[in-house]
Amino acid sequence: MTDLLKDVEEFYAGFAASDFDRAFRIFAETVITVEPALGRAAGLNVWREYDEAFKTACPDAIFVLRSAVQEGERIAVEGSLRGTFAAPLRTPQRELQPTGHSFDVWFAHFLLFHEGKVVEHHIYYDQVAFGVQLGIIP
Fold it and tell me: What is the pLDDT of the chain when averaged over all its residues?
């Protein structure tokens, strides 16, 4: 059985280093992403653009892995996303101005691999708590 955790850790490390080529190597070109703010999106380009915009706004953002469980070609990860909202954030709705607030929001990330690549993944987190920590929701 393939150790999918190594692939997830590589994605998280690449994201932390702003090395997006490294980070996104694990994803298929046709990956399906389900994420609260993004919705359901098809294609690596959409997922990568979304993540790059977030990392630009929060350049110190990192994923902190808490636990992971693998079964076959699926892995479930629990962790937190930490960082500081330091620059404008482009979203599909509008551009958000930075608040300088730090955040540490817990998430669950479920990934499905096929032939060594992530073909679908779902990310869940508390959007209200995240918005409060970012300073965009009172």
Answer: 96
3-state helix/strand/coil string of 55-122: HHHCCCCEEEEEEEEEECCEEEEEEEEEEECCCCEECCCCEECCCCCEEEEEEEEEEEEECCEEEEEE
136 to each of 53, 71, 97, 103, 106, how far by Cα in Å? 17, 38, 9, 12, 18
Averaged pLDDT for residues 39-67: 96
Q: Which domain holds residue 48?
A: 4-134
What single letter denotes the amino acid at residue 74? R
> How many domains in the chain?
1
* Interval 82-98: pLDDT, tens: 999 999 998 878 899 99
Specify the CATH number for the domain of residue 48.
3.10.450.50
> How many Å is the Cα radius of gyration of the chain?
14
